[in-house]
Amino acid sequence: MLRSLLLALALLPAFACAQEAGDWIAYRDAYRHMIWFEKYGKPKQFLQNHLRLRPRDAGVSTDGLRLTLHGKGAQLALPLDALGRAVFPFSRAAYDDNAELAWNRKPGQITSIAWVSIVTRPDGVYAAADLRAACEQLLAYLRSTGGANGKRCAGVQFSYARMEAAQVRYQGGDGAPVPLAAQEGPAFPGDAVAGFRVFAYRFSAHPDAGQVLTSATPLAIAALLE
Description:
Blueprint: H1 7-11, E1 24-26, H2 27-39, E2 47-55, E3 67-71, E4 74-78, E5 85-86, H3 92-96, E6 100-103, E7 110-118, E8 125-127, H4 128-144, E9 153-160, E10 168-171, E11 178-179, E12 182-185, E13 196-202, E14 211-214, E15 220-225
Antiparallel strand pairs: 1-6, 2-5, 2-7, 3-4, 3-6, 8-14, 9-13, 9-15, 10-11, 10-14, 12-13
């Protein structure tokens, strides 16, 4: 179940990975792919887009991983979250300067990609119908890029650090909340790095009239496409 591929993310046109000559990409290449989401005109209020640094295999450590924008005479550190995502800096000056985005890993260890995921809520309360809508929005966006053909939304996945004692429950009607089973796996299906505490909420198992309750804000919410 946790191997359900979030194909759109894998199939999104990946802008230049860490090139053979070095651990960097051209800012202009990244910009061209990140701007697609900004210009996407269909509903996307449940979605967010990041520039993500993603290990090619499980043996690549992300401890101390840093991303820096290098322009003419200036550098800007871009903070990464626990899953290697950064807020992309849309900058005309960086574009005109032909700036570079670089990270501190050997060439070929890390790929860079435009990464779409579902927005988390600080109150930890997710209407089941909204989660389905979020998955459908993500699927529609991925199809607009030419990916996820033949896939459907099967559910969503909440991910946490392995040692975090988080709980995710489904509340339907007037009944008692039903805990979702915790498993170990990747934060996003298809990632090489696993070891996260993940909870899969599958649409077929619960009515849309309920809600999902989380005890803490997850690192990410991924769509499960099958």
